[in-house]
Design goal:
Number of domains: 2
Number of strands: 22
CATH superfamily of the largest domain: Aldolase class I
Shape: globular
Distance between the termini: 44 Å
Helix content: 25-40%
Strand content: 15-25%
CATH topology of the largest domain: TIM Barrel
């Protein structure tokens, strides 16, 4: 049985340690250049070295993105990028450009290479040739069905890993190859700068009536005709494994640390449930519920089961958000849970405490104490220390969240 890998995103150090604590087998991240997410903080070299050391100390891996399509003036800087990645001991580089692939082979011949979804791999012939060129892994195009993935698996070397996106935002363009943002606002999607104009609402303006807008109706559902739903495959871990997938990739390097925490944890628990009974996998409802407790668009299964009938969301481009993080546990001692506040909440509020690989615990916090042990009615100052009495034990880093009304 292929050992499934839960691959989590990290846009900065906070998100990296969230993924590491909540069950990721591997974490993918980017530096300030050559990565397909320009908006997050990303990692400088000292941060990268520190992250790799932390991951390796726990037996986990770090994959570094260099999957943009660089222009001529960037190529001379790529050699240093590769050599620094090698010195930092990253476990693999994720690349989309064939020229960069060959440069990696030249400058770091022992470096593991993963081929990005930006390459648009949809058949076994391409996967085979990339393997022959030195790739250890291919990240397949999002537009493939499980049957097509199984076909690629059957006709490629068993030493070639197959990775697919299983959760998160989807792009309306094929494998993320889009020019819309470049055209409208001069932000190049193929260099990590996408402004996501596919999420915007559009109207029609007639040439002789400037300033007079008319709605565009694809049908009665409205005008957000380019806005994709989010992907969610947490119910189908068994089918992904049966198709020969090795790595389950979670989208979200620009998402919050809370998102990374909850979604990584959910897929970690789902994979663990799968291994308990691979032939009779049924996801517990409470694990499925977790992916609905982060900010998300409506979910669908992408293309895994064929061309989706309802992959677009026409109503608006906003997110569904039902929970807020209110605090993080620092320690448990002498019958009290010591925390740091993240968002305002009140004595008497009912909250959930989410620890790694555990079912959330629901508590009503009737008593809140400030750092001096004095009773307070609200935790309303950013990052304020507080505590509450509780006989249960929670590990440091446990997330405390509250349902929004």
């Amino acid at each position: 049985m292929t050992e499934l890998e839960v691959l989590a995103p990290a846009g900065d150090e906070e998100r990296f340690y969230a993924a590491l604590s909540y069950g990721a087998d591997a974490i993918y991240l980017g530096r300030k250049e050559f990565g397909m997410r320009a908006s997050p903080m990303n990692f400088d070299l000292p941060q990268l070295v520190k992250a790799v050391e932390a991951a390796h100390a726990k037996g986990k891996k770090v994959y570094l993105t260099c999957n943009t399509l660089p222009r001529n003036d960037e190529i001379p800087r790529f050699e240093q990028f590769v050599r620094e990645a090698q010195e930092a001991k990253v476990d693999a580089l994720i690349v989309a450009d064939i020229g960069l692939l060959m440069m990696i082979k030249r400058y770091a011949p022992d470096m593991e290479i993963h081929i990005s979804t930006q390459t648009g791999i949809v058949n076994y012939a391409t996967a085979r040739e990339l393997y022959n060129m030195g790739a250890k892994r291919v990240v397949l195009a999002r537009e493939l069905t499980l049957e097509e993935i199984a076909g690629i698996r059957a006709k490629t070397s068993p030493d070639l890993d197959i990775e697919v996106f299983v959760h998160g935002a989807m792009c309306v363009s094929f494998s993320g190859r889009c020019l819309l943002s470049q055209y409208l606002v001069q932000r190049d999607p193929n260099r990590g700068e996408c402004a996501q104009p596919c999420r915007w609402g559009y109207h029609l303006m007639e040439e002789k009536r400037p300033g007079e807008f008319f709605p565009i109706f694809e049908d009665e559902k409205g005008t957000y005709i380019l806005n994709s739903k989010d992907m969610c495959m947490i119910d189908h871990i068994d089918k992904l494994a049966q198709a020969g997938v090795k790595s389950l990739k979670i989208e979200g390097r620009a998402k919050s640390a809370y998102y990374v925490t909850v979604v990584t944890n959910a897929y970690r628990m789902a994979v663990d449930e799968y291994y308990k009974s691979p032939d009779n996998f049924k996801l517990p409802e409470w694990i499925r519920d977790e992916v609905f407790k982060v900010s998300h668009r409506k979910y669908c299964n992408g293309f895994f089961f064929g061309k989706p009938d309802e992959s677009q969301y026409y109503e608006n481009s906003g997110y569904i958000r039902n929970y807020d993080v209110v605090a993080v546990v620092e320690k448990c001692e002498d019958g009290r849970v010591y925390c740091t506040q993240r968002n305002r909440f009140f004595a008497g509020d009912t909250v959930e405490l989410l620890a790694p690989s555990q079912k959330p615990v629901t508590l009503t916090l009737d008593t809140l104490l400030d750092e001096n042990g004095e009773s307070i009615t609200t935790a309303n100052h950013a990052m304020m220390p507080f505590s509450f009495p509780c006989d249960l034990q929670f590990p440091a880093g446990t997330v405390i969240r509250k349902e929004t009304k």
